[in-house]
Amino acid sequence: MTQPMTLAEKILAAKVGRDVVRPGELLEVPVDWVLAHEITTPVAIRMLEQRGMDRVWNPARVVAVPDHTVPAKDIASARLYQRLKTWVQKHGIEHWYDVGRGGIAHTVFEASGLPAPGEVVVSGDSHTPNAGALGMFATGVGSTDLAGAIYAGTFWLKVPETLRIDLVGQLRPGVYAKDIILEVIRRIGDDGARSMAMEWGGPGMATLSMEERFTLTNMAVEAGGMTGIIAADDVTQAYLREKGTPEERWCIFQPDPDARYAERIEVNLSELEPVVAFPNRPGNGHPIAEAQGIRIDQAYLGSCTNGRISDLRIAASILRGRRVADHVRMIVVPATQAIYKQALREGLLEIFVEAGATVSYPSCGACLGMHTGVLGPDDVCISSTNRNFTGRMGHPSAQIYLASPAVVAASAVAGAITDPREFLTETATQLSA
Amino acid sequence: MSTTIRGRVHVYRRDHINTDEIIPARYLTSDDPEYLGLHAMEDLDPDFPKKVQSGDILIAGKNFGTGSSREHAVWALRAAGVALVIADNYANIFYRNAINNGFLALEVPGAAEAFETGDEAVVDLRAGTLTNSRTGQTLTFAPLPEFALKVREAGGYLEYLKARESAAS
Ligand code: SF4
Fold first, then answer.
1. What is the ipTM score, two decimals?
2. In chain B, which residues have their Cβ closer than 8 Å to the Cβ of A372?
3. Residues of A in contact with B159 (CB under 8 A)
């Protein structure tokens, strides 16, 4: 009889051709995908070139998406973009999503029809666990690891312990996936899952859409996690079919019921309230009531965590027929070109523009303080992104509050951090009247 | 390779020192270590790049290097002159990056309490001891994983990969 394993352990064991792997073991793991963007990949390429190792193990398995500073914000960024593109052309990298056809790499990748359950993806970016919602092992690495994976198609890894998070109940109106992950990080702490796999499941999972699930695994790193992971179920399978991921590549694993977890926690979705993470740690979460009334200068809606179509729809439902407060700048950044087009078709972009928000092009934008809404000294920002570290979105004295897209939109209208449920009730009343 | 390292320490008694503090994103359009080194730790301590001297040791609390995957954090510290980092423990990717660069990141719980900025630290890698020359206090730590030492000997992970491949062919 084989020993019970967690989901991450099962995927890794299958990848290395073993019956069982145990936390703490050092493995060399073959990768199925390398995801490349223009900040960390050019360095990896240069490292390989300098050592006479300029080769790509499999150009059909590299997905390259410039996203952090595109369209280029300055000459240095233009150079980084060029270095990525030149390399893509030289090696015949098969999946290249240029400006105007791409967006944020993680969000492009999740919806590309390329990744499948049971696969392994690495990227030189810490939010790579995003793709773990598809039942795959997805983790972020540095440029050297990235270079190694591009060259050899493998990377080294210490098998992580697994933290299990069981969801029960169902979210109430005005409460979203972002509130779940902020609540979990608040409870376990910013290093509560340090170097672990965060495995999500439980009966409440079935109530969450794929887009909501990506928000959960996306922020694994904010709790120190090596990856976030969710076993593929009916919701996943429907999503994969819609995206055209060939069924013969699906390799669906379930964690064993008696798998060994480092820790187990349960979150009752039915009891959850909107959560706001105060500066300067994602784990500094507070119930919305404690944030209510904090005056803001900027409201930012975007990023690989919450720049999806469902996020834009929620924000638009609050902004419809309303105006962004006079003293507030609201910036909306659809995560990908596909989302941008969809939002355009649905009339969401018009709602934002009419409300006095500015809609920007798909990119990482101000999420990491490089362009498109960089914060000045003492600016206060409510943001749907994933990190509120000192200096993350601009000046070190700026204050970043993290929350759901609904909180961002409601706060933009009110001019101060606001419980979105006030607006949702009004909307509901208006509709029924 | 000498296994004893001596250096003057800079102590930051804080947990979760993140990669945005170690090297802010506004400098990421460069991967020139010299340039990055001039800005190391500046959002945490603007004077750090001026204060740090070659061979110094950085000591901090838990979860050092949390945040983004930017290897620039390791390069910035090294170029600024930091010989090694000592912390209670590290964020996953920072720790990988340190190993891959053959940069020493030691896990010594309680080090931040045992030192004041300016003290001299003596690290014996083989014995797994960290001593404060001023107080005489000695802390112990688990030896580095064998893999990390091999990578360090090879001069980095890519050198390690390359050497292994040419040995196989
Ligand atoms: S949107 Fe933000 S968190 Fe996501 S990849 Fe871009 S910079 Fe990183």
1. 0.88
2. none
3. 51
